[in-house]
Structures are given as C-alpha cells and as structure tokens.
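stage 2 :: seqdesign
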C-alpha cells in the first residue's frame, strides 16, 4: 500500500520598488508581453490630431514608500515620444487626453510534484511523496488610457502585465519603459472599420 505525504512550502516576496514594475514587461528574451486593448469602435480615430495630458485628481501612487517622480517622468516622456512619432501634437485644445496608471497585485502560484523521495523528510521504500510549493509574487500592470477631448469618457485603453522580477540600472529602466510603452501604443490608433473588417476576413471570420 502506498503512502502519501503533502508538504507545502511558502516563500514570501519582499516589497519591490515601483520603478521595477516595468522591468518585468520585457524580462527575458524568450517571452513577449501580451498587450490587451479595448476601444469604442463607433469613433473615427483618423480625426484625432492633437492631445494633452489629463490632469490627475490624485497623484500616481502605489505605495508612498516606493513611488518616485523619476518613474512617472520616464513613462510620460515615453508616451510623448511615441505620440510624436505618430504625428500627434500637444495642444491646449486637444482632440483627446492621455493618462496612465500602474497597478501591483499580490498573487499566488502552486506547483505540485510527486516522487519517491523528499528533500524535506525521510521516507521509507515504496512511499510516494507529494510536495506542493506555494509562492507569493507581485504582478505589475501598465495601463495607458486615451480619453475624450473633455477628459470625461474613456475611448481607448491599452494594458500589459507580467510578474515583477529583476534589478537594473537607470539606463536599463528607461529602455524597458520605452519598450513597454511602444508595445502598447503600437495598437493606437485602432484600425478603421474597413481595415478591421478586412483583417477579420483574412483571418476567416
């Protein structure tokens, strides 16, 4: 008769500075962050030519101990650079407003393995040991919002998220933020109805 043991190991992750939130987005060359977008398909985005920054009612703040203006300035500069490359110009009477947010969510993952041996306790021959490792980790998300001209309605949103890992230099942080922002805004403005319909037909829909 086989005997089963269950062993759970909990590993806790320490608090991670806010500027590392975006480092996770391009950590590792083998994986590409997934970008999700949502928008109002009834709008004609080709008419959008100018923008301005949406005035925050509250400052960007995840945790007072880890928030810093360097991070916010880098994201703003990256967004402004991408919009400029798309021929959007800043204006006091904009066609749309832009803002961004960062969220950090605590998550857990479990990994279960079954074997005839254990590194944590002695077992007798023939015994089957099931070990479950449960780890806590932080998952960060960058959210870029495009709002209507008056800033009251959301008309486009792009997000990307991944587990927070690693430590980098200031230069690497800037590069990572620029890449993350460019990845999100590569989907803005969204395709017109005709191009979207053509794309769907090409995909067999």
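stage 2 :: out
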């Amino acid at each position: 008769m086989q005997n089963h043991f269950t062993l759970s190991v909990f590993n806790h992750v320490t608090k991670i500075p806010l500027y590392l939130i975006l480092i996770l987005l391009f950590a590792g060359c083998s994986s590409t962050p997934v970008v999700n977008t949502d928008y109002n398909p009834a709008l004609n985005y080709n008419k959008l030519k100018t923008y301005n920054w949406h005035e925050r009612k509250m400052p960007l703040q995840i945790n007072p101990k880890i928030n810093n203006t360097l991070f916010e300035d880098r994201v703003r500069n990256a967004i402004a650079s991408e919009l400029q490359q798309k021929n959007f110009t800043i204006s006091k009477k904009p066609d749309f407003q832009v803002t961004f947010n960062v969220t950090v969510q605590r998550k857990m993952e479990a990994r279960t393995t079954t074997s005839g041996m254990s590194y944590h306790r002695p077992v007798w021959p023939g015994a089957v040991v099931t070990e479950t490792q449960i780890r806590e980790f932080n998952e960060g998300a960058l959210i870029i919002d495009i709002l209507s001209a008056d800033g009251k309605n959301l008309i486009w949103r792009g997000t990307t998220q991944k587990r927070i890992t690693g430590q980098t230099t200031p230069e690497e942080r800037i590069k990572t933020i620029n890449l993350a922002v460019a990845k999100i805004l590569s989907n803005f403005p969204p395709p017109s109805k005709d191009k979207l319909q053509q794309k769907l037909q090409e995909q067999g829909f």
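stage 3 :: structure notes
- Residues 1-19, 24-31 have pLDDT under 50 and may be disordered.
- The beta strands are 4-11, 35-39, 50-53, 89-90, 96-115, 128-147, 154-163.
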